[in-house]
Amino acid sequence: MSILEVKDLTVTFPGGIEAVRGVSYEVERGEVLGIVGESGSGKSVTSLAVMGLLPKNAAVSGSVKLHGQELLGLREEELVKVRGKAISMIFQDPLSAFTPVYTIGDQIAEAVRVHQKVGKDKAIKRAVELLDLVGIPNPDLRAKAFPHEFSGGMRQRAMIAMAIANDPDLLICDEPTTALDVTIQAQVLEVLKTAQQETGAGIVMITHDLGVIAGMADRVLVMYAGRPVEQAPVDDIYYRPRMPYTMGLLASVPRIDGEEGALVPIEGNPPSPAALPPGCPFAPRCPMKVDMCDEEEPALVPFGGGRHVACIRAHEIEHKGLTGADVFPVPVIPPSEVVNVPRAERATVLELDGMKRHYPLMKGAIMKRRVGTVYAVDGISFDIAEGETLALVGESGCGKTTTLQQIMQLEPPQDGRVVVLGKDSATLDKAARKALRRDLQIVFQDPMAALDPRMPIGDIIAEPLRAHGKKDVAAKVAELLQLVGLAPEHAERYPQQFSGGQRQRIGIARALALEPKLLVLDEPVSALDVSIQAGVINLLEELKNRLGLSYLFVAHDLAVVRHLADRVAVMYLGRIAEIGTVANVYDRPAHPYTQALLSAIPLPDPEMERTRKRILLEGDLPSPANPPSGCRFRTRCPKFARLNEAERQRCVDEEPSVVQQANAVDHGAACHYAEEIEVITASDNQEEE
After folding, report:
1. Predicted pLDDT at 689
2. Which residues have a Cβ under 8 Å from the Cβ of 131 and sit 6 or more positions away?
3. At residue 226, does pLDDT exceed 90?
């Protein structure tokens, strides 16, 4: 018998807005059901409806049965007895899910006492045991800490501990790893697997990360415009999709294992629940659309082998063996002429040499005094050649953003040199700094925050042109909008009238207004759905090749980096751990930190995910105010434990510098015992051999 049975679930908000339209699924004991789809597809609303956590103005109909008991229509006091005991939820943002004024231990203990008749001391003891189970170091001490004293990864693990406190039969995980670094994500997913083994619970995993679903799920439900459009076992979804939307999602995912060529974006945007098109909601974006698609919305019908599909052309897709690349047009990106020139012969557009940026650590509200130093960036060196993309990667707190700030400010660094387009920032006066800014522009992470909501986008793009005294501004704005794939007549619209992907294109157009030579990209696609992200990545690649641009690209998604970058620098705690061409660093990483980063990234390939070898890092990033002596990575390094005493002592006493690897022209690693190994596709069997 199923743990959870959802039948024809519909959620309607005031104004007749149907956010969820007839969702049905079942979850067996010990099974993981993955729910995927773009933002606004109804994934989270569905889970909140199951938990009974929607606002009172939401009208919910259909059926939600837990162990045969109907949950819809239950009084709140009855639901409270079920929530947290038989069914639990892990939320996307653990900081807002915890109460900031109570300790973590007290909050977990409260979850225990609500459903179990135990004393406070026993509940606290259980909370400590749960924190230990999910891998929190020193759980007895950490139980007395407040949520703000935990890192993001530790808070998420504590949230999992609270969710499994009463051995629930069903866990609903709503984007549990979205805001986490990839190394912490790997730890959290491992904790989820442990929690499932301990409780035997079924799991509903809601996420936009198709790599996570490939490694976790048994079955997958694909949602679009509030409805399921395909449901099947995980291997069928990934290797034999039968719905064009599913095919488009999978084709748009950048692969860390290095598949070449342009990504396949899904053109357009998901429809608004308030204005659904007639017939199939996906028809306006579907390359396989025929006239019949506009007549009636296809039902989700059985397709054999446990698969259900909502598409009138599913049998044709199966018969012809079509793939995402067959159905969706693959963009052709013209090659760059600059790359034909050897790197050594190209001009250097950016050079950092031993650059440092430290901040004083102050204490005291009235009489402030310096009690330490934050070593945000502590001596890094790299360069970018004309027409090249260098990616700067690493966990949060490693110094990436500080490096960008130092470059963009065009101010003298505390130590070392920053040379932009041949000009040393330490020698620039105010006029020279303004002139240089024409050639150095930035695209920000959050396009909505970067665009003034009170100004039409034509004025936003025109602002730098007017500031630098350019003429024919209106014609230039129209040209820039066309360059980034938008219509010139959109110039009178405001930012809030555009989708996330379109807003990012507006940010790129503004950055290109003064025809810069170097573009700094600060996480430019991290806030976008994978289907929209693919189009922006293709646009950036095309603009680089067509205009001869150079990029400094900061990102946490190493799959995107592999697709867009020529070279990559891996940062750890204010220093560069490894640097070189993308092929060298990804295919043969030499530093243990890079190896752990790459092995932690999930692949959208179920078979590879089931057999891959993981290198899990212990603990969190040390504080940049108190970095370890010698090698900064040694406190988390898996290799450090395998060294003899003399070798360990060297790691403790001597900080390694970046040394070129013997087997590669452009590949350096800052490790005393660097060793190139393959980690992206390495399986357990390969490692044993």
Report:
1. 37
2. 104, 105, 108, 139, 142, 143, 157, 158, 161
3. yes
pLDDT over 60 (residue 687) = no
Task: Tell me what pLDDT residue 297 has.
Answer: 94
- The H or E element that residue 575 is part of is strand 575-581
What are the structure tokens assigned to 474, written together?
């209106």
Superfamily of domain 338-578: P-loop containing nucleotide triphosphate hydrolases (3.40.50.300)
Burial 648-668 (b: 16+ CB within 10 A, else e): beebeeebbebeebeebeebb
Beta strand 170-174 pairing with 202-206? parallel
Is the Cβ–Cβ distance between 456 and 489 less than 8 Å? no
Let me know: does 479 contact 423? Beta carbons within 8 Å: no
4-217 CATH pick, 3.90.79.10, 3.40.1190.20, 3.90.220.20, 3.40.50.300 = 3.40.50.300
Domain boundaries, the chain: 4-217, 230-327, 338-578, 581-688
Rounded (5°) CA angle 356-362-368: 140
Tell me the three state secondary structure of residue 87: strand
Phi, psi of 114 (to 5 degrees): -60, -35
pLDDT per position as a tens digit, 476-517: 999 999 999 888 998 999 998 887 888 899 999 999 999 999
Could you tell me how many residues make up the chain?
689
Which amino acid type is present at position 474? A
Token pair 């291997």 is found at 235
Q: How many helices (H) and strands (E) does the chain have?
A: 26, 24
Cβ count within 10 A of residue 623: 13
- Which residues sit opposite 441 in a β-bridge? 519
- Supply the pLDDT for residue 308: 96
Query: How many whole angstroms separate alpha carbon 479 and alpha carbon 460?
Result: 14
Residue 6's SS3 state is strand
**257-311 pLDDT per residue, tens:** 866 667 888 888 888 888 899 999 999 999 999 999 999 999 999 998 899 999 9
